[in-house]
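anyone else get weird line breaks when pasting these?? whatever heres mine. first is seq + tokens for prot A
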Amino acid sequence: MAHCAPLSEHRDSRWIFTEAEINRAPSVGHSISPLSINGERYMRKRCINHILRYHGLKTSKPQTSLRAVVFTHRFYMDHPFQIWCTLKVAAACIFEASKVEVHKLSVREIYNYICTLTNSVEHVPDIEKELKKYTAEILASGVTHPPISTPTLPFHPDSSYRETDLAFYKVCVLICVFSTSFNTLCIQHDIDVLFYACVLVVQKYTGYPLAEAEDGGPWYTNLSLSSTTLKQLSEQVENSFQKHTPLVLWLLDDKPIGVSMDEIHKLVVLDTDYPSDFLLRDVSSEDN
């Protein structure tokens, strides 16, 4: 039986921030058109919206989208929106996040796709040079370290579940992608902790069984993490979905996890059925 690896929260304190620290991000109070706290949050969602729309178009791996979103959140804790364009940051973060994929695109191709999706036209004399500057800054800022990956799950030992384990795992990663998009939880908690909180949410809505801990308790008791903390974080994730897009949780509710991978993908991945600005609807652009 597979077990969850023990973990402790805030293993990499460099990229873990308090709410107060996030509220003092470089864009807030910047000398050039300072943003309010709500305005700064709006700009984060604007950049991440580019990533999610690209994800829906290119159907990139959910782990790639997760890495790109986390890179973005980290990047803007050291860099102001007033100087670093969201379109180019999104393209550079997707590019760096997709380096592990076999069929990866160039940063210019990614940028062109995003511009097409957002109907954006930028007149940049030397866009290749500009994009190289952005990718170099993404690497120099250290946001790609430590590497971001989703942990294993203690799947049920019954072999009859084997065909649906992968589908369940993919749903959990996609839910984690969305949860990192709606808020700043991924820079307030270790990404493994956030992922496990998302697993609890998906379990609640699907009833999918995971193996019990050795003492017969819930699977997450194997983690060196307070179950209270994990449950509280899962409530934050669920509340975030209910506030921003009840459609995601409604689609998960009462849906058998044994459906095909294509159907699973349609349930939670951003596609043309979603409003293109759904991440931005809860924050007024007037604060921007």
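and prot B, same format (seq, then tokens)
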Amino acid sequence: MKTINPTFSERLNDAADAVLRTCRAALKRVERMPWPTLLALCIMLALLVAILPLAFTLFVCFMLVKVIVGAFGVKHLPRTPQE
């Protein structure tokens, strides 16, 4: 009797094959790129790798400061009614 559900190792092999096919296709595409395009791609990738973690870290730091300041219950000045 044949099982319809693949085993874990079969699924793992399928996933590995899919990743390898994707990597091979990406490498073929990069090999066909002209030098200026490849240079621009490398610069954009370097900026993405350098700036994105910095922006995320700054966002987390400012949010932590906001939560800490809010935890101490900073009193705000009452607003005067504007006429």
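btw re prot B: The radius of gyration is 26 Å. Residues 65 and 71 are 10 Å apart (CA to CA).
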